[in-house]
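Lecture 7, part 2: worked example. A protein chain together with nicotinamide-adenine-dinucleotide.
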Amino acid sequence: MYLVLESLFKKGYHMKIAFYTTKPYDRIWFEPMAKQYKMELLFLEAPCRPNTLDLAAGCDAICIFINDQITAEMIERLTKMHVKAILLRSAGFNHVDIEAARGKIHVLRVPSYSPEAVAEYATAMLLTVNRFTHRAYTRTRDFNMSINGLMGTDLHQKTAGIIGTGKIGQSMIRILKGFDMKVYAYDLYPNKELDVEYVELPELFAKSHVISLHCPLTKETYHIIDKSAIDQMQQGVYLINTSRGALIDTNALIDGLLDRKIAGVGLDVYEEESGVFYEDLSDEIIQDNTLARLMTFPNVLVTSHMGFFTTEAMQAIAVETMENAHALEHGLPLVNEV
Ligand code: NAD
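Predicted complex, written out as structure tokens:
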């Protein structure tokens, strides 16, 4: 049973919001805002699941994070509980059944908080898997000063392919151009204002030394990187995914690594990350064989969906989430409605 940690500011305040999947680093930002916005915030450690939904009884809204899955059946129950809104502490909304929510419950997101945070992190992952700084760190800590096996490649004058040229993709393009890379892009809706050459996916796959994913997870982008896509890529390609895990067919990725077609992979997201990422499972027996297999490759870096995790981004998420709640409470335009 998960604990209801605390109910703040019991009396004389207005809107009541149940915050699911909260960690200490969420509370740092949101606690002071409860007073400022005169709202009652209920911080829950529990993820939002059918069996934890009742914890939000009496609340006007729930506030969730990326691995809280909201199904049509849960939306029905929330409306019966008179919950008026689902506040997302994220830009992505693939974890909510939006069609089921339409006309029944508001879904408000934080469309932009710090695109640079994620793009800079994607770059950090690329530099790590290319130059093996993750392995160099563990070696030198042990006074193993050998550099055998740690040879990388220059990024200078290599080619990058960016899939998705929204806010984060654009930031990534700016950064990679700073390395003097040639950048190609693919987007369902090409942005004519951008100083980048758009190509179709087969050309992007064929030309890129580095491919970085910055599109949302939709029906169209599910497994956009599958066996066929990997077959079209260059020998020795680097692949970076800071968007959503299910953009990549992980089994096809593993085959590409085994064939040595793929030289390095940085994954900040993983198809089956829900229930695993953000938790300390160091004492557990890992049940996910695919994830366990991924961890065995020396040229794969997996991190726990933390591309967004900077001071600037956390503050912006907190402010925008509370502004969304404030707009709802005061009948103002819901500019961030999904
Ligand atoms: P955005 O909405 O600004 O940009 C997304 C771009 O993808 C748009 O240009 C859109 O036209 C394009 N797109 C949509 N469907 C497409 C398709 N089928 N093929 C190609 N392109 C398509 O979003 P953003 O703020 O740049 O964020 C991008 C993604 O990054 C989010 O969807 C989210 O999944 C992920 N993200 C991850 C983290 C993290 O911590 N790792 C943090 C924030 C966002």
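Confidence is low (pLDDT under 50) at residues 1-11. Residues 311-329 form the longest helix (19 residues). Keep this in mind for problem set question 3.
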